Structures
1.
Amino acid sequence: MGITTRRPGEEDDAVQTDQSGQVRPLLTEIDHIAIAVPDLGEAIDYYRETFGAVVDHREVVESDGVEEALLKVAESYVQLLTPTRDDSTVAKWLEKRGGPGIHHVGYRVADCAEALDSVKAQGFRVLDEQPRPGSRGTTVAFIHPKDALGTLIELVQE
Ligand code: V0V
Ligand code: CO
């Protein structure tokens, strides 16, 4: 499974270097922490009343069966997510878990296709074979949580 060790000097597909040989990490920033909730309005109220957080963007993402409210925190977002239909994977997740909680982490990348190819080349399972549209005009791809230390990872290109 996911964890491998390498000896010094061994080839490492995941390490990208720039022209001067400096290591260039694929993940550049945390784009968002996604919290799945059964009631979006209540979750927005909680963040506003407790922390003074305001909604920066709202969107229904039909392909994923979710509605989101993005709260901006510095250069990152809290993505409050709720299912829009019973067969949404987020509905299934909430049902199984029995309540709200962290659903996934979105990491910003410079080039989603490049990052996805690197993950695939290392043999890790992905949920999107090709980058696809995410919310607010981003391009995204998901990595399977079973190949990512139990965390559903979303690669996000702005
Ligand atoms: C499921 N598992 C998780 C998980 N969801 N582990 C960590 N984090 C999660 N969020 C575990 C689950 O406990 C099972 O482990 C195993 O994976 C298989 O799960 P399952 O219950 O059988 O569920 P599946 O296979 O029907 O769906 C799970 C996956 C699905 C991750 C494959 O949620 C998916 O394709 N997600 C990608 C799309 C997505 O999440 N869209 C919503 C956000 P055990 O019990 O077998 O050990 S859309 C979004 O954020 C957008 C658009 C954006 O930001 O722009
Ligand atoms: Co997301």
2.
Amino acid sequence: MKIIASNFKTNHTRKSTQEFCDALESFLSHKSIPHKVAVFPPSTALLENAFKHFSIGAQNAYFVQNGSFTGEIGLEQLEEFSIQTLLIGHSERRFLGECQEFCAQKFAYFAKQNFEIFYCIGESLNTKNQGLDSTLAFLESQLQGIDLSYPKLIVAYEPIWAIGSGVSATLDEITQVHTRLKQKLGKIPLLYGGSVKPQNTSEILSLNGVDGVLVGSASWEIESFCQILENSF
Ligand code: PEP
């Protein structure tokens, strides 16, 4: 079983998310795709997590039940939709100011709530250019404070330089990093993300140490996401 997830980022409305999810449910009910599938819509478009063939997850939430945190949503808002899956540590959130300690606090809170957590790590081009050891040291720093024995943890390796660029890391680059990360992560599922698209899904998923993919732009059109799923086995 692989894990295939779609991160909508700041795309789609509630209406188009509903259409996308209805179409995805119909597609998955006609195919026997042996994978775990998750969709992360923006928070204004969260839908009841009641689809049979995939989960709805949240791209972000604050580590609180409720309270005075303008612009944030907390556990109460997720519970209203029975959401139990959360993305933490995405490079775009880190870029917006979330430091490692904040990511770790978020992780600790939602792990305590028994959430499934997709936890993202990834290096900049500058770090990549310093070599594999520097890259690994940086990636390990992004795991600081994260309980790697948490059973509902999924890690996504998403090199920042490959995200949204249209050009994924090469198969060799993915293999090198995943092999080293697996030594630290053991049995924790490890996804790759960064310009995954229908054309490269199959070869990326066939690599040793790749347990799935986290997809941004190529997952926003239902036809393209279904094609990725078609190519995933
Ligand atoms: C992402 O941001 O999680 C991502 C993988 O984006 P893209 O597929 O567009 O590179």
